Amino acid sequence: MIKILIIEDEEPAAERLVKMLLDIDTNIVVVGNTVSVKSSVKWFRENPLPDLILMDINLSDGHSFDIFKEVEISAPIIFITAYDQYAIDAFKLNSIDYILKPIKKEELRNALDKYKRMGTIQVQQVTSFLNTIKSNQDKEFQKRIVIRYGDMIKMIEITDIAYFYTEEKINFLCTHADTRMPIDQNLDELEEILNPKIFFRINRQFIINIAAIEKMLTWSKSRVKIILKPASEHETIVSTERSSHFKDWLIGK
To answer: CATH classification of 2-137, choosing from 3.40.50.720, 3.40.30.10, 3.20.20.140, 3.40.50.2300?
Structure first.
């Protein structure tokens, strides 16, 4: 018998998860379904640890790593997530399994099989992963950029910038008001300081603000051509290797 606690704040998703679990293994017993950080902490304080936890990361009152601030959990965890690639890499490095939403039965079956093979996951591994997630959540992105030309220094709000681009080995920014200025940082450096929820590097030449997208067109080789506002003299096509990540970025994954 495998005793499983589900931490999931969406009732239809939790009900579907229970049904899939019981379809996969009749020896599974769902001992509880908590919907928030608060209710999860209460459950752990009042009940013995389950054999396994299926834990969503985004909950109604915060993120699941907040639970670890209140109680110690040594049971193995399968995370349910829609997080970006950095989170998926962290899962793999810490040998913790994960399921991407929407959950597919075969992926859930594979995760359960992995749990049975691995046995108990040490709490240190879980804590290490959660600290990785939290550090990215708490990261402060740059709010302004300083432009120097001649003896003049000008400060530009990041939110006022429509896109960054490279032309003849010189880097520029273009504001929503269609003001273009050379900058010191290259695109690699800019990727480190810009909020990835707002800015995306579509190819080697352009980083764009999602608010600067006026129109998108399907292009060859499953690519996307972007019409920017303000308009660019250069073709702005999402490179093949970035296309799938671009589509995830558009919907906020």
So the answer is: 3.40.50.2300
Tell me the CATH class for 144-250: mainly beta
pTM of the predicted structure, to 2 decimals: 0.50
49-65 confidence digits (pLDDT tens):
999 999 888 788 887 87
* pLDDT greater at residue 249 or residue 136: 249
For CATH 3.40.50.2300, list the domain ranges present in the chain: 2-137
3-class secondary structure per residue, the chain: CEEEEEECCCHHHHHHHHHHHHHHCCCEEEEEEECCHHHHHHHHHHCCCCCEEEEECEECCEEHHHHHHHCCCCCCEEEEECCCHHHHHHHHHCCCCEEECCCCHHHHHHHHHHHHHHCCCCHHHHHHHHHHHHHHHCCCCCCEEEEEECCEEEEEEHHHEEEEEEECCEEEEEECCCCEEECCCCHHHHHHHCCCCCEEECCCCEEEEHHHEEEEEECHHHCEEEEECCCCCCCCECCHHHHHHHHHHHCCC
For CATH 2.40.50.1020, list the domain ranges present in the chain.
144-250
pLDDT-derived band of residue 90, with 50, 70 and 90 as boundaries? very low
* Mean pLDDT value across the chain: 85
